[in-house]
Amino acid sequence: VPLITVGALIGQLAGGPVAAAGFAAGAGLVVASFAVSSLVVAFADWVAPPLVLPFGMITYATKYAAMVLLLVMIGDSGWAGRVPMGIGVMVLAVGWAAAQVTWVLRRGPFARPGP
Predict the structure, then answer these.
(1) CB-based contacts of 81: which residues, under 8 Å, 6+ apart?
(2) Is-above-0.85 flag for pTM?
(3) What is the pLDDT of residue 115?
(4) Angle at the Cα of 91 from the Cα atoms of 42 and 13, rounded to 5 degrees
(5) Shortest CA distance to 89 belongs to which of 54, 59, 63?
(6) Which of 12, 67, 88, 97 is buried most, with the most CB atoms less than 10 Å from its CB?
(7) Where are the beta strands (DSSP E) in 40-111?
């Protein structure tokens, strides 16, 4: 949420409401994408752990095909918020990945035992 808020504010200051909306739309796209993946993998693990890989791969392929189609349509539309949207996608994708790496290193299987 802090990345989305700061990015939208910077977009507002740099390019007005269209830039702020574009950044927020790109950020929302990434959040939705990662949330769907997390829910599908968690559901597959709950139902039958051997289904995690196939469900995860099908979800990955489907959501990225949909994302590419959406981004191509937006790129062809001439919408002024498409560049801020791309920036929002990049910032949130890197931020989300960094948060996951940080969690794994601090609390996951690679965490160092405490004193």
Answers:
(1) 18, 19, 21, 22, 23, 25
(2) no
(3) 60
(4) 135
(5) 63
(6) 88
(7) none
- Helix, strand, coil proportions of the chain in percent (round to 5)? 85, 0, 15
Backbone angles phi, psi at 86, to 5 degrees: -60, -40
pLDDT in tens, 83-93: 898 888 888 88
Q: Which tens digits make up the pLDDT trace of 24-55?
A: 988 888 889 889 999 999 999 999 999 999 99
Give, as one character, the DSSP assignment of residue 51.
G
Transcribe 15-50 into DSSP letters. H-HHHHHHHHHHHHHHHHHHHHHHHHHHHHHHH-GG
